[in-house]
Design brief:
about 200 residues; mainly alpha; 7 helices
Length: about 200
């Protein structure tokens, strides 16, 4: 059990550090769904290496999260472990696809047609509202384990999972957003959901 706790701690901290590093690599002036095609092409022309570093660090964050999820799921009873790990894998795959698009746009930005760049860039912006389903799945696996006569995890973790589930469910409205706080890949996804 001690070995599992160490692996959970190291992989969990590693995931947080690498995930934070991946977004830090992009810098503060990233394009958004409100950016024009020309602005997107210009950003990838000027910051292509940032997007590649983002994809590179996101790769290792995915590895750390998968290890964390596998070890953590193994501590849960069936079927909760499968539900939890399914959510982890959904999160990892969604994050890898997003990084894949960012790295792809960075490869030959000078050859990009602005309208095409805008369309391709819009696809990974839906990472935020789509990944909410995966995070809700992870929370849903924990909630039943915190309540009832034979609870297996602390009640506070169950309530935290309920709050997280509800917040992530509300956050799915960003799939309908066009701009501002509720835009796909916008502040609601990155800052509110990310902090919670």
């Amino acid at each position: 059990m001690k070995k599992a706790a160490v692996v959970l701690l190291v992989s969990g901290v590693g995931c947080i550090v690498l995930y934070s590093a991946s977004f830090t690599a992009l810098g503060g002036s990233v394009p958004t769904v409100e950016s024009s095609g020309r602005e997107i092409v210009q950003w990838f022309t000027d910051h292509g290496t940032n997007a590649q570093v983002y994809a590179w660090t996101a790769t290792f964050a995915a590895l750390a999260l998968t290890v964390f999820g596998g070890v953590g799921a193994n501590l849960l009873p069936k079927p909760n472990r499968y539900v939890f790990f399914g959510g982890v894998l959904g999160w990892v795959i969604t994050g890898q696809v997003q990084a894949w698009f960012w790295a792809g746009l960075a490869l030959h930005p000078g050859d990009l047609d602005p309208a095409t760049a805008r369309t391709i860039f819009d696809i990974p912006q839906y990472w935020g509202p789509i990944v909410n389903g995966s995070t809700m799945t992870m929370a849903a696996a924990l909630v039943p384990l915190a309540f009832g006569a034979s609870r297996l995890i602390p009640r506070w973790l169950g309530w935290l999972s309920v709050v997280f589930f509800v917040e992530q469910g509300i956050e799915t409205v960003t799939v309908f957003g066009r701009s501002g706080f509720i835009a796909p890949g916008g502040a609601m996804n990155l800052y509110l959901g990310g902090a919670i």
